[in-house]
Amino acid sequence: MNMDATAVGRYFAATDAALKGLGTYLADGGSPTRTHNLIGRIAAQHLTALEASFEAWQHRVSFTERFRISKADSGFPAFHNILDLANDAKKAGPALATLPSMEQLRADMADYILVKKAFPHEIQKQLAQRAYYERIAGRELFEANTLPVTERVSVNPKNGRPYYVVHWAAYDGTQHLPVVYTATIEDSSEEMVRTLVKDGRLNEKVDIPLPVGGLLNPELAHQFDAFVEKNASLGLTLTTIGTNMDADFPTLHPKQLQRFVLGPFYHAGLTEHGTLVANILAKVRKPENAWLLEWSIQELWSMNEREGKAGFWSSTPPEQDFFINTEDLEAVRLGVSDHATNVLVPHQAYQAIYASGRQDEIFAGLKTHIISGNEVLREF
After folding, report:
1. What share of the chain has pLDDT > 70, as a percent?
2. Residue in 267, 330, 257, 212 with CA at minimum distance from that of residue 8
3. Confidence (pTM)
4. C-alpha triplet 331, 336, 338: angle, nearest 5°
5. Which one of 28, 82, 120, 207 has the minimum C-beta count within 10 Å?
6. E strand or H helix at 83, and its extent?
C-alpha cells in the first residue's frame, strides 16, 4: 500500500505511539509470557532497534516514494523496506561525505528563497537525505536477520552442563512481521563443560562479559548463526525449529524456545483487518489513538531427554521430548507447549470499542492492555 503525505504522517504518528506504548508496558515489568518475563526484557532491546528503523523510514519517505506497508496482513512495513534500510546503512558514510553539511544546506535554502523567490525543492531533498543518513549511520536497526546474542550463562546442577540463554530476531519476509526468539540451551561438549563448570557451578575464574555476540561455544558459533537464519521463518513451528536444532547440534540440547511475534498492527483508514474493527476505530477522535497493536507469545519446552546410545559401529546423541499441549487445539496447530496473544489499546480506542458493545467479540481470546500516556491503566 502506497500512502499520500497525510496518510504517511498519520501512520508514523500511530506506530510511534504504539511502539512507545509497548515499550512502556515492558519497562514497567509487564510479563508477556505465562512462565517468565525474560523474553519481555529481551524483546524490549529489539523494540528499540525497531523504533530506530521507523524513525529512519519516516525521514526516508520525504525524499523517496519507495515505501509500502502490508495493508491486509501485518500492518507493518513491507519486507523490502527492511532491505532498503540495511543497504542504505552500509553506504551512509560515503553518502554523508558527499552531501553538504546541515548548516550549509540551511544557508543555501535561505539564499535561494531570498534570491529566486521560490521554494528550493532540490535543497530540501538534500536536507532530508542528510538527516536520514545521519540517523542511520552507526545505529542499531531492525534487520532481516539479527544474529544470536548470549544473554545469560549458568549451570544445571542436576547434570553439570552449562546452559545459555540466547536470543536473535528476524523480520519475516512473507508475513512482514518482526519476530524475536529466545532459547535456553544446555551444552554437553567436553571443552565447554571443562571450561565453564567447576564443582557443579559456573567457574568464577572465567570472565564472561555478557552479553556476548553469538553462541558462547566458539566451535559452534558460526554454524549456529547459519542455523537461526535458516530457521527463523514464521512458517516453521517451534517444534520444527527445536527438533532441527536438536538434530543439527549433537552437543546442544534445547530445553526451551520462545517466539515473540509483534503484530498485526491495526489503524483506522490505513489497514484492512476487518470492517468491524475498522469502523469502530474510525470513530476515534485523534488519529494517533485510532490503533490496536497485537503481539503473541509461543513457548516450547522439553519435558524429557532421551539418553543417547553409544555403540561400536554407531551412536546416537540425546534427544529432546518436547511437550505439546494436546488439550489445546491451537497449541497443537502451532506445535507449542503454551501460547498467548496480547493486544495494546489506547484509552480512546478502547472507549470507542466499549461504546459499540462489541468489546467481547473484538477482544475474545486476547489479554488486553489499555494504555494512556505512560501508564497501563488496566489488564484483563
Report:
1. 93
2. 267
3. 0.92
4. 70
5. 207
6. helix 79-90
Residues 298-352 pLDDT 10s: 999 999 998 866 655 556 778 999 999 999 999 999 999 999 999 999 999 999 8
CA angle (271 as vertex; 269, 276 as ends), nearest 5: 75
Residue 342 sits at φ, ψ, to 5 deg, of -115, 160
Beta strand pairing call for 319-322 and 252-267: unpaired
What confidence tens digit (pLDDT) does each residue in 139-193 have? 899 999 999 999 999 999 999 999 999 999 999 999 999 999 999 999 999 999 9
pLDDT in tens, 75-104: 999 999 999 999 999 999 999 999 999 999
Element (H, E) at 222: helix 221-230
Mean pLDDT over residues 192-213, rounded?
A: 95
Closest CA to 317 of 327, 328, 325, 309: 309
Question: Measured between alpha carbons, how far is 346 from 267 in angstroms, rounded to an integer?
Answer: 12
Cβ distance 337 to 322 under 8 Å? Answer: yes
Q: Which set of grid coordinates corresponds to residue 15?
A: 506506530
Quickly tell me which residue has 480512546 as its cell: 348
The phi and psi torsions of 29 (rounded to 5 degrees) equal: 90, 10
DSSP annotation of 289? G
**Interior/surface letters 100-119, b for 16+ CB within 10 angstroms, e for the rest:** eeeeebeebbeebeeeeeee
Kind of pairing between the strands at 197-198 and 201-202: antiparallel
Distance CA 277, CA 296 (A): 19
